[in-house]
Amino acid sequence: MTDQFAKTEKQYIELTSGVQRFDHYSVYADPLLPQIFSHNFIQLHHTFPLDSLLPFFPSVPNLLHTNYIHVKASPLHTFPLILKQTLVKQGFVVEDELFFARGLEDWKQQAGHPLAAWGTEKSLADGSSIMNIYDALYIGEAAAEQKLQRKYPLYKNGTIMLVVCYSDASRTIPIGCGELFMNKEEKIAKIEEVAILDQFQRKGYGKILMSEMMAAAKLNGMETVYLVASGMDGVNGFYEKLGFKRFRRMHTIFHYFLT
């Protein structure tokens, strides 16, 4: 990952997660939301020796103060096939995080699509509502509410912009939203937490939302946008159709302990 993207990614993560740095890894933890996996993980440095990975795992729950293991390898790490096979046999989930980026110099669409909105009290309320509904489906109502309470001040003060998509031009029914975090120093924006309610998917709303987010980023002086997707997502081709190109892959390892 280039330094510019790494800086923006670090800034975004540290909005909700504290960090402790050690010689060969860093611990990112959110004590207010330990159940949110994306807020709590070990980031390995490129100096971390892969032959120490398995012996390292038992210490991870104590480092994170959680009942799960969540470790992200350095982008410079490449797991040998035998390591992946060993991890899977021992019950670990091994996935890839894929980084996609797109320059905005040739992005022609103007902001202000009739089915999208951002930067208003109504869009803030509507976007927060959609985020809460969507999260509740996957992490439960209580965790979704806690997550929203944690991030709402960032939405309210504009640190993270919520861009909302509506079912029609009346903008009465919000059906999707996404986060836009802008690093104005580097002129790089991160697109995150893109969500379209299930019943409205595959109807063109995702393209409308993503296009509005890129237009909003360009309007605010950003030169590049990027996002992180799971290697298991079926939407990576969708991003590529919008002009995104993959520039980095990073292995992630997860194991949840039932209590």
UniProtKB/TrEMBL annotation:
It comes from the Bacteria. Keywords: Acyltransferase, Transferase. This is Acetyltransferase. The lineage of its organism: Bacteria, Bacillati, Bacillota, Bacilli, Bacillales. Residues 117-259 form the N-acetyltransferase domain. Transmembrane segments: none annotated. InterPro entries: Acyl_CoA_acyltransferase, GNAT_dom, YpeA/RimI_acetyltransf. GO terms for molecular function: acyltransferase activity, transferring groups other than amino-acyl groups.
